[in-house]
Amino acid sequence: MNSLGEVAPNLARADDLLREAARRGAKLAVLPENFALMGAHETDKLHAVEVEVEADGAGNGHTPIQDALAEAARRHGLWIAAGTIPLKSPEADRVYSALCVYDAHGARVARYNKIHLFDVGLPDSREAYRESATFMPGDNAPVVIDSPVGRLGLSICYDLRFPELYRQLSAAGAEVIVAPSAFTYTTGTAHWHILTRARAIENLATVIAPNQAGHHASGRRTYGHSLICDSWGQITSEARSDANEVVIADIDRERAARIREGFPSLSHRRLG
């Protein structure tokens, strides 16, 4: 997606893409990080923050993002791993960056709060980011759930640089790992394909990595190249432009199981 600076048009755009994914036979759809808002200012997310809707759908306030996702999952018959949503934290000036998963009936079945925050300055550049100014890091354990495409592990963007998280996901049985992202153009050009493929290879897991693409209201440019990488590290589908589009691939669970059986590197580990 190339997400805009207002929530409503982004929700409409996401719904169009989800409809197309369902039409093409998808069972699981994954939206990129910040799919509902890439604002002109980092503090814009504080104005879009929502109170968490309980798994049974019982909300405590105005929750247009969560309501739209639950309704889309029901209407399209899709499991949706919903990029990230700004959810209320204990601090008024910071929110959680939450990845919520909905089943095909619209029930929220998992939530993961981003634990690694992008507080960096890019080498040889004045480009710098400080997510911790408006995001609160999660303190939750790694999240792995059952899904129609196998055991599903949850991660977000900058997490890709922390292989220890993915080891914990694979140790919990993850066969497929989602990594909704908003990689900058600079970091994406240097590291996007390397990191996504490495996480797939070392964990013998499919990695689904939708990414923001193009220019946004803040002037920030993101890298795009949303991709799906199989458990042997081969990219099976990839976006090639900054357009809003659906990237789709089959997950061959039988082949993945054969790879793990014949190439059992996960069971060869000698360190924690």
Automatic annotation (TrEMBL):
Pfam families associated with the record: CN_hydrolase (PF00795)
InterPro entries: C-N_Hydrolase (IPR003010), C-N_Hydrolase_sf (IPR036526), Nit1/2_C-N_Hydrolase (IPR045254), UPF0012_CS (IPR001110)
CDD domains: nit
Keywords on record: Acyltransferase, Hydrolase, Lipoprotein, Transferase
A molecular-function term among this protein's GO annotations: hydrolase activity, acting on carbon-nitrogen (but not peptide) bonds, in linear amides
Every CN hydrolase domain range: 1-253
Presence of the UniProt keyword Amino-acid biosynthesis in the record: no
Gene3D superfamilies referenced in this protein's UniProt entry, alphabetically: Carbon-nitrogen hydrolase (3.60.110.10)
Origin superkingdom: Bacteria
PANTHER family the record matches: DEAMINATED GLUTATHIONE AMIDASE (PTHR23088:SF27), NITRILASE-RELATED (PTHR23088)
Family label: Belongs to the carbon-nitrogen hydrolase superfamily. NIT1/NIT2 family.
Protein name: Apolipoprotein acyltransferase
Organism: Salinisphaera japonica YTM-1
